[in-house]
Structure formats: C-alpha cells, structure tokens
Amino acid sequence: MASINSVVLIGRLTRDVELRVTPSGVSVAKITLAVDRVPGRDGSKETDFIDCVLFGKTAEVTSNYCSKGKLVGVQGRIQVRNWEANDGSKRKSVEVICDNIQFLSPREG
Q1: Which residues sit opposite 47 in a β-bridge?
Q2: Which residue in 22, 6, 1 sits closest to 74, CA to CA?
Q3: How many other CB atoms sit within 10 Å of the CB of residue 31?
Q4: pLDDT tens digit string along 48-76?
Q5: For residue 94, which of 63, 35, 53 has the smallest C-alpha distance?
Q6: Predicted TM-score of the model (pTM)
C-alpha cells in the first residue's frame, strides 16, 4: 500500500527562532507557526500552533532572517516522537520536519 506524508503550511512565527548546533555540528532550528483554520459556518476563527524543525543551512538562514511575527510558508513531513519522561509518564510530540521554507513577509530595510 502506498502512503504519502506531505505537509504545506503558511503561518506566522509565534516566537523568535531557536537555533542550536548538535555535537556533530549540524544546525537545528525550532519554530512554532500560528496557522489559521478555515472559518466555520458561524464565522468563528480558530488557530493551530504547529511545531516545526529545520536542519542544516535551512536552519541557519531561517535563524538569520526570521523573527517573531514573520509570515512564512513551509513544506515538509509530519513526524511523531514518543518518549518516557523522567517521572515515568509517556509523552508524545507531533512536529513538521521542514524541507523548504519561504519567507513571505516583506523585507525590512
């Protein structure tokens, strides 16, 4: 059976980019996007907050050129991570692993 895991989102950064470098030298950036849902029949507006991860040069460029409130488009795949916390409880994280990012806010200058 074939499967597809592909995500395209447009949203605003909810905070500044968190950039770190792994011990092996790979740059990793974490962002959270505020993505509006299509309004319901009653016209109500809802927003989802989606965690995204970028690697390598894409992470570095995003960290240099993006900040809280900027509009971006991302393309990638969903990844689910499960782990056990220090207190023994089960934890789960759903995030988008981004292959591409487009900066959609006008340049400041």
Answers
A1: 36
A2: 6
A3: 29
A4: 999 999 999 999 999 999 999 999 999 99
A5: 53
A6: 0.87
